[in-house]
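Why should sequence recovery work at all? Because a backbone constrains its sequence more than one might expect. Tight turns favour small or flexible residues, buried strands favour hydrophobic ones, and helices have their own preferences. The token representation captures these environments compactly. In the example below, the structure is given first.
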């Protein structure tokens, strides 16, 4: 079977799964109004999907051994497709949340399974191109999600953001049944079920994802709910670690972390996605709250960066086997760090194109980072352990994104308070600069026929804007520094030499 047909087969369901992580975000107002829910209640439609998705990702390899990888792939697509129909037909917020949980269960295994099938289906010397295909799909999803969700919601109804998955899901099931075949080591096996590991993993990752998603809104550890969930997450994950070390057939194979290259690659991927998600959350907020950009204008700033990523991934896929991938990876990480440093220099006099170019640089950096990082991290893993390694790798990638969002939004709020308190110290009659500016503002208001007494309020509003702008600068600079900190790990990773023959295929010729 043609390897490009395999790529199309596994990337179709993967793309719609990744799109569904962000497609709901722009439709929350419509969902809230239609189902008579508050804004906070409606956000559970997002949290429910993320939590169940996070739980299933590391279980993908275990389920593949339990029921066979092809069976698990088809089962996941069927569950995702049926639950998409149920989500679109939801009659209340509670029913939507339940169906989103099921949808996350169906979609969680598709990303690691697709990645492992791609790596096994392509000869080792073409792993870079295989990962370019996979990377383009994973990067295209977050770009298409909000745009597609907004267009469908405005044109038809929010329900169609789920119904649109059904024809793609049906086609994916048919193609998977025909195209994909399991190699001997991925067929169904009789195995003892690790019930303790299953329980600890579900509870630990579920509560961790809830804490990361809701922590900032609940003011973190000022909330008893967050404290309880954080303690449960910590205890469950420690017990999971202990259980998996001694389990005969663990849910998550932690022995993979004995591999220096795999461990280094996972850590780098964590911070790469922390940088990416942290910056793409901060930037539109900066543009809309401080600069007065519309959502569409903010999208125009973000869009070129996504296009740059899509353009440079195939280039990186071709270069990764023609030069030392460490050089590509080092350059990609450095460009990502440079872009967030440039973002830390933004102020309220920055023009449109000065906002755009750092995003373009970041897009180029992500394109040059993703392919060599994934290829070096996974290509040397034995084919029998590829699904386990891909599951862990994708789990860490997702957690990195979640931590990036939680970290940057929290830092933004805290640093804004810090800068506000420092700047307020200068709003005093004893500060000469303040007095001069106050008198000029009062005179200007008086000349316009407005009460001069409003000068203090106007100055304070400007102070809030300045404090918030400085907080954005701090947040961007911090994630830039974190990105630079992982550069030494690049030199710990080992280059995988291409071999003449292809690895065992996950398809039948």
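From this structural description, the recovered sequence reads:
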């Amino acid at each position: 079977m043609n390897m490009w047909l395999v790529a199309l087969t596994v990337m179709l369901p993967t793309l719609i799964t990744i799109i569904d992580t962000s497609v709901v975000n722009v439709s929350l107002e419509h969902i809230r109004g239609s189902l008579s829910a508050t804004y906070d209640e409606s956000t559970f439609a997002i949290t429910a999907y993320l939590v169940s998705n996070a739980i299933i990702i590391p279980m993908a390899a275990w389920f593949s051994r339990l029921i066979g990888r092809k069976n698990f792939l088809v089962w996941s697509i069927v569950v995702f497709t049926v639950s998409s129909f149920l989500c679109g037909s939801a009659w209340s917020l509670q029913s939507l949340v339940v169906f989103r949980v099921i949808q996350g269960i169906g979609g969680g295994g598709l990303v690691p399974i697709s990645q492992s099938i791609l790596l096994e289906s392509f000869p080792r010397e073409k792993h870079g191109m295989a990962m370019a295909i996979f990377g383009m799909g994973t990067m295209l999803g977050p770009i298409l999600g909000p745009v597609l969700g907004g267009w469908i919601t405005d044109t038809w109804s929010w329900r169609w953001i789920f119904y649109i998955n059904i024809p793609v899901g049906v086609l994916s099931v048919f193609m998977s049944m025909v195209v994909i075949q399991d190699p001997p080591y991925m067929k169904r096996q009789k195995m003892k079920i690790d019930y303790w590991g299953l329980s600890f993993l579900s509870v630990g990752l579920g509560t961790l994802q809830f804490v990361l998603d809701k922590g900032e809104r609940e003011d973190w550890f000022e909330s008893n709910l967050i404290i309880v969930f954080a303690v449960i997450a910590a205890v469950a994950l420690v017990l999971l670690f202990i259980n998996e070390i001694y389990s005969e057939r663990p849910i998550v194979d932690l022995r993979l972390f004995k591999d220096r290259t795999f461990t280094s690659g996972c850590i780098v991927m964590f911070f790469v996605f922390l940088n990416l998600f942290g910056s793409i959350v901060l930037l539109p907020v900066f543009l809309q709250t401080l600069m007065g950009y519309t959502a569409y204008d903010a999208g125009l700033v973000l869009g070129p960066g996504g296009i740059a990523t899509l353009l440079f991934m195939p280039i990186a896929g071709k270069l990764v086997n023609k030069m030392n991938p460490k050089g590509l990876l080092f350059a990609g990480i450095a460009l990502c760090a440079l872009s967030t440093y440039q973002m830390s220099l933004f102020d309220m006099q920055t023009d449109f194109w000065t906002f755009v170019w750092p995003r373009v640089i970041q897009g180029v950096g992500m394109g040059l980072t993703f392919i060599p990082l994934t290829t070096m991290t996974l290509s040397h893993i034995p084919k029998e352990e590829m699904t386990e390694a891909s599951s862990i790798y994708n789990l860490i990638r997702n957690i990195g994104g979640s931590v990036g969002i939680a970290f940057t939004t929290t830092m933004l709020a805290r640093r804004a308070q810090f800068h506000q308190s420092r700047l307020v110290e200068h709003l005093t009659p004893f500060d000469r600069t303040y007095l001069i500016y106050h008198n000029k503002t009062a005179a200007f208001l008086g000349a316009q026929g407005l009460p001069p007494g409003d000068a203090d309020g106007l100055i304070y509003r400007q102070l809030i804007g300045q404090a918030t702008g400085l907080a954005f600068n701090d947040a961007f600079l911090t994630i830039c520094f974190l990105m630079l900190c992982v550069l030494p790990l690049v030199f710990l990773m080992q280059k995988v030499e291409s071999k003449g023959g292809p690895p065992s295929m996950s398809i039948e010729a």
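A few observations help interpret the result. The radius of gyration is 24 Å.
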